[in-house]
Design brief:
The structure holds two protein chains of two kinds. By secondary structure, chain A is α+β, with helices and mostly antiparallel strands. Chain A has one domain: Hotdog Thioesterase (Thiol Ester Dehydrase, Chain A, Roll). Chain A contains two helices and six strands; from the N terminus they run αββαββββ. In chain A, strands 1-2-4-5-6-3 form a six-stranded antiparallel sheet. In chain A, a hairpin with a 3-residue loop joins strand 4 and strand 5. In chain A, about 40% of the residues are buried. Chain B is α+β, with helices and mostly antiparallel strands. Chain B is about 25% helix and about 35% strand. In chain B, strand 7 and strand 8 form a beta hairpin. Chain B is globular, with a radius of gyration of 15 Å. Classes of the chains: A alpha+beta, B alpha+beta.
């Protein structure tokens, strides 16, 4: 099975709650005091961490299906905060907008109760470097 | 209804705000501030690594660092604590930080209106002239009387 979670993501408490072939993995993060910003709301940085992790997971999953496992280097991320994250579990799933040989563009949404009502979204660009040094 | 003091001292504020919740978990440290900027540091820690190949800090904690430094830049600029919420934050990762290096972020609040605050800043691992990340964001100033209880 592809490892989707970095040391940081595991430490944050992110879990892979769904991983079916052909579909980007669904990640979940139960609320904890360590994720709080303003009292009673998620910290923007913790939400960004969940979104980025879901973006990488979507990319790793798609690359694994193509038999690729390059090193992933973040280029940039833009996070839009749509509503306050309430103190309960959040979920996120990424979508590959464009997968090239060296660059991937991803779009990610995070929600709590209803996937149709996201609390935050992000777009990311990721650079892919083949491990054999060919790139 | 809650009253907010009409002064903002980042050092005193940090003793409370950076020792609890998400900033406390990350171990963010207050470094310095000016009229409209604030500088915070994120110490290196093995469980905040984002790349299996290199012992460098993940991008996620650097976003949290920039977000928190931005909030504090808004409060030093406003000379008062007001609840804010991040609306939009963009981070460009210019290069990985050095192995086992802490990362420092200096964020400036360059424009405030009644409802919005605009920030920009960068993060470095020792030399401010050679940043690891560049950030720009917009925060909403929340009305404490209209905040929905959790």
């Amino acid at each position: 099975m592809t490892e989707y979670l970095t040391a940081y993501a595991r430490s944050l408490g992110v879990v892979v709650s769904e991983d079916t072939p052909g579909c980007p993995p669904l990640l979940s993060l139960p609320f904890a005091h360590e994720l709080e910003g303003r009292p009673g709301a998620w910290h923007g940085g913790a939400i960004a961490g969940l979104l980025e992790t879901a973006g990488y997971a979507a990319l790793r999953s798609a690359l694994a299906e193509l038999g690729r496992a390059p090193l992933l280097k973040p280029v940039n991320v833009t996070v839009q905060y749509l509503s306050a994250g309430r103190p309960r579990e959040s979920h996120a799933r990424g979508r590959i907008v464009r997968l090239g040989r060296r660059n991937a563009n991803l779009s990610i949404e995070a929600w709590q109760d209803d996937p149709q009502r996201p609390i935050a979204s992000a777009v990311m660009n990721v650079l892919m470097v083949e491990r054999d040094g060919a790139d | 209804m809650q009253a907010y003091p009409d002064q903002f001292d980042p050092g005193t504020f940090a003793e409370w705000a950076l020792t609890r919740a998400h900033p406390g978990w990350l171990g963010l440290q207050y470094r310095a501030h000016g009229d409209d900027w604030c500088e915070l540091e994120l110490p290196w820690r093995a469980d905040l690594v984002g790349d299996e190949a290199m012992p460098v800090l993940a991008s996620g904690p650097i976003v949290s660092l920039l977000d928190m430094a931005a909030g504090m830049a808004i409060w030093v600029s406003a000379r008062a604590f007001r609840p804010v919420a991040t609306l939009d934050l963009r981070v460009d990762y210019l290069r990985p930080s050095r192995e086992h290096a802490p990362v420092c972020a200096r964020v400036t609040c360059y424009r405030r209106t009644r409802t919005a605050a605009f920030v920009r800043g960068s993060a470095h691992d020792g030399d401010p002239a050679d940043p690891v990340a560049q950030a720009a964001g917009v925060f909403m100033m929340l009305d404490p009387h209209r905040m929905v209880p959790a």
